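Table S2 (text version). Query chain:
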Amino acid sequence: MTYRFFEGKDHASVYQKYRFTPPDELKNIILQYLDKKKGKPHVLVVDLGCGTGQNSRLLAPHFQAVVGIDISESQLEEAKGVPGYPNITYRKGSAEELPFPDGSVDLLTAASAAHWFDQPRFLAEACRVLKPGGCVALLGYSCSFPRLHYQDCGERLDHICEEVRQVLLPYTSNQVAVALGKLEELYSAIPFPDKERVEGLQVNSSTSVRNLMGFIESLSSFQAYKKKDPQTAENLLLHTQNRFLEEMGVMSPDMEMKQELEYFCVLASKPL
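Corresponding structure-token output:
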């Protein structure tokens, strides 16, 4: 089962540079849940579909060892290129065949990746490798684009993003639609009786017009669009950037604006 359709070096570089790191607020919720269900020590977390390692790096200070797993060699090479995390190991592999002994993992995470998994096989592996009390944390965005705020034109900027979403909609995979549905089916399929959902976690931050265009470029739907018609896809990015600058009344794509992202998380704990 592939987690992303595009594994080239160019896409991996864009993904590394522009993809959002999960917020500290959500990380803290996950760690508190793990403390409550299993307790310390926090020895091993396995980050599935780790991509370029944003979530792996976020968790690294809290575990003795972090293993990031992805099927994409180019994504993993980008992740390995980030210095300063000696307790992280990256491996090529899949969520459906985990290279860990039974009952050896404290936490399994997947950030904006679980919608690509083969659900029955992934859940079977989760049951096998988790320690008693070990936890699963599957997180993602609740919407395709952040809500934007800049002076009095935030609503118009959101409208531009919606137009881009509509252009990309025919290239959006069924798996991404599952993610936008907050993994409802996967949540229902988790066999552990102790499970819960966190929804509506709104996180505010700043981004630039340039970075938002990079985020759009990192989307699998944009990559599918680009694969079909590279020039038209590039024109869409340029046109969208120019529309943003015009609406904001600025010249530089490095101008920052406020963004609001809504996150969700599926949490579950293996019985003791």
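Notes on Table S2: The chain is about 40% helix and 25% strand. The longest helix spans residues 230-248.
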